[in-house]
Write a structure and sequence with these properties.
heterodimer; A: alpha+beta; Alpha-Beta Plaits; two-stranded antiparallel sheet; B: alpha+beta; FAD/NAD(P)-binding domain; Flavocytochrome C3, Chain A, domain 1; Methane Monooxygenase Hydroxylase, Chain G, domain 1; 3 domains; 8-stranded mixed sheet; 4-stranded antiparallel sheet; disordered N terminus; disordered C terminus; metal ion binding (chain A); 4Fe4S_Fe_S_CS (chain A); iron-sulfur (chain A); Ferredoxin (chain A); metal-binding (chain A)
Chain lengths: 120, 529
């Protein structure tokens, strides 16, 4: 579930409020987003993907809040990794993060071939 | 709902599309391309809502040449579909999917393989839905985000003439008077925590049933997908290399191939099940983050190395998402039996293409692309003959206009009770007549209470309607599973292990006050034009 919106990184673009499919965030009195309904979070990580400032952290638990220490999250390297692997925004031209989703079918075929090879 | 009339945004359009996921966006674009005016309403945000946005859909993808390729594909699928699917529908889906995906090139950056051949078949979910949002915006579709539909409008002649709902971020209500309506509201997982599925609560099923629509294939709703325990991450590719262990660390034998659901469910009924992915080849490990960027997120955040460490797994129910059932389609343009009402994607039955086993990602995505466009074009055609007009009556019942005195109904308890009947493996994967009978009784009792007394206010009306939708969807699933007094495809009855020629037909279901089932009289949908 969503655990943190880091105000020191947040630019107040409020894209997260707009794109959250389950309407978890709201715009606060300071025009910045805040987590208004954490229990509605479906742990889909879309807010992280759409946050160009890498200011949002979604925890891995989908069925309970799991408060985290903001300093250790800032130091963890986890912020922004989804957007980077997707090759969005400033990562778009980086060949390390080109979209290789099309290889999925080949992965399944490899698994099938391995199963055939190891079948008793 | 708010009672302030001045708070209602009232609009008129040729075609209203309810739901902005894969099927809804394809529907809206197809309707708009015929010249019709189109409004698309989404419960959340068109671009992230629905199960495609978090997934990585491949598509059913077979080249037209040589012709034997598609003929063989269809023949094989007829066998695995246990005779409930239809070769003509399959052929249409294969053809339209093949033509459609390359048209997205303006908005989706398709990859080339090592030989420079453009790969259209499989798209990453977030990029795919972002592209479709750009497409509908570029075509001039009016999109209302965060505007859940609550109920349909119906004329006295029975035709559907629009819908109304709430604007949950901007406040107030909306009403759209439309010449025709496409329901693209998705399936429902009964809020099982399947990734990305929590906007998919079966709302369209409830709304359509209130207009008199019927359903097909609702017994084929017993598909589950593996995920790390306490996680939504149902991305399944990497589990092709999984090794599973019981609580004592003993390897659980799995049949070769992708069908691990039933043995896993059996093991989970005995105790906790653990997994590692140590058999994954090194080169694939390196590629996983750029194939499925979200797959590693829970592991990295828990500090688990899934290629080395064992982690506990669970199975999340797919309900009618990777299940099959949905609104019955009675024409090539995906019309339902209600005039002016069309169905697309997981809101519609996928029996026509998938048959009695899961369509999985490939067939379901191809169905969404195709049925969306047929429904959009069909709705536009219908709207040309039946111009949008006011005067439609809002027809919502459960949760909006209770049958008797309004009183508090505990939504959380009602949902939990529904989930207890449709999600446990020993009730839904390993079915039996007596357990289904018991589930039916329990669900009828909840429905009677809910239908009689539940009524939401602006804050609670959406969750109230969603709960009613899941509740009545569960009733139809159970009734259909009882009516199919045999085992076939994903529907497996311990008490009726054989497949019986008596049931070589689709089973229809419907009804709100009283649930009914009957055998589909037509082996094929009526060829109404």
């Amino acid at each position: 579930m969503i655990e943190l919106v880091l105000e020191e990184r947040c630019s107040g673009c409020n894209a997260c409020v707009e794109i959250c499919p389950t309407n978890v965030l709201e715009i606060g009195s300071d025009s910045s987003p805040f987590i208004a309904r954490q229990n509605e979070c479906q742990t889909c990580f879309m807010c992280e993907l759409y946050c160009v400032e890498d200011a949002i952290y979604v925890g891995p638990y989908c069925d309970r809040p799991d408060p985290v220490d903001r300093e250790s999250i800032l130091a963890s390297g986890l912020l922004g990794e989804l957007r980077r692997y997707h090759g969005w925004d400033e990562w778009a031209a980086d060949p390390r993060y080109s979209n290789e989703h099309w290889q999925m079918e080949k992965v399944f075929l490899r698994a099938r071939d391995m199963a055939i090879c190891t079948a008793p | 709902m708010s009672n302030h009339r001045q708070d209602t945004l009232e609009l008129t359009t040729d075609v209203l599309v309810i739901g902005g996921g894969l099927a809804g966006t394809w529907a809206a674009s197809a309707a708009r391309r015929t010249g019709a005016s189109v409004i698309l309403v989404d419960k959340g945000y068109c671009g992230t809502s629905g199960v495609t946005a978090t997934a990585g859909p491949g598509h059913w993808w077979v080249p037209p040449d040589p012709a034997q390729l598609r003929e063989n594909t269809i023949r094989n699928r007829l066998k695995t579909g246990f005779g409930l699917n239809d070769p003509e529908w399959m052929n249409r889906v294969l053809a339209l999917t093949w033509e459609s995906l390359p048209t997205l090139a303006e908005f989706y950056n398709f990859s080339n393989d090592e030989n420079g051949v453009t790969q259209y078949r499989a798209l990453r979910g977030p990029e795919y839905m972002r592209a479709l949002r750009k497409l509908v915006d570029s075509l001039g579709v009016t999109v209302l985000d965060h505007s859940p539909a609550l109920e349909l409008l119906q004329h006295s002649d029975g035709s559907v003439s629009g819908a109304c709902g709430i604007r949950r971020q901007k406040g107030g209500d909306w009403q759209v008077n439309a010449g025709a309506v496409v329901l693209a509201t998705g399936g429902t997982s009964f809020l099982s925590r399947l990734l990305g599925s929590h906007t998919n609560t079966g709302d369209g099923y409830l709304m359509a049933a209130e207009a008199g629509a019927e359903f097909s294939g609702m017994e084929f709703t017993s598909y589950y997908t593996v995920a790390p325990n306490h996680s939504t991450m149902t991305r399944s590719m990497s589990y092709a290399f999984a090794t599973y262990y019981d609580e004592d660390g003993v390897v659980i034998p799995m049949p070769p191939g992708p069908d691990t659901m039933r043995p896993l469910a059996r093991a989970l009924l005995k105790g906790r099940v653990f997994c590692d992915l140590h058999r994954t080849p090194e080169d694939i490990r390196a590629k996983v983050p750029v194939i499925s960027p979200n797959f590693m997120l829970p592991f990295r955040r828990w500090g688990i190395d899934p290629y080395k460490d064992r982690f506990e797994i669970t199975l999340h129910g797919e309900g009618t998402i990777r299940g099959i059932g949905g609104l019955r389609v009675v024409g090539w343009d995906c019309r339902t039996s209600v005039p002016g009402l069309f169905a697309a994607g997981d809101a519609a039955t996928r029996e026509l293409v998938a048959g009695a086993i899961s369509g999985g990602g490939n067939i379901n995505s191809a169905w969404a692309v195709s049925s969306g466009q047929w429904a959009g074009q069909g709705a536009a055609r219908y709207a040309r003959k039946h111009e949008a007009a006011g005067g439609g009556r809002p027809i919502g019942q459960a949760g909006l206009r209770p049958g008797s005195a309004t009183r508090h109904v505990d939504l959380t308890a009602a949902l939990a009770a529904v989930q207890r009947e449709v999600l446990p493996y020993d009730k839904n994967i390993f079915r039996s007549g007596d357990r289904l009978e018991q589930s039916g009784t329990v669900l009828e009792d909840i429905w009677t209470e809910f239908h009689s007394h539940a009524a939401g206010n602006f804050q609670t009306v959406l969750r109230t309607r969603e709960t009613a939708a899941m509740l009545t969807t569960a009733r139809w699933c159970v009734a259909s599973a009882l009516a199919r007094d045999e085992s076939r495809g994903m529907h497996q009855r311990d008490d009726r292990p054989q497949t019986s020629a008596r049931f070589n037909r689709r089973i229809l279901v419907g009804g709100l006050q009283k649930v009914w089932t009957r055998t589909d009289p037509a082996p094929k949908p009526e060829l109404a034009s």
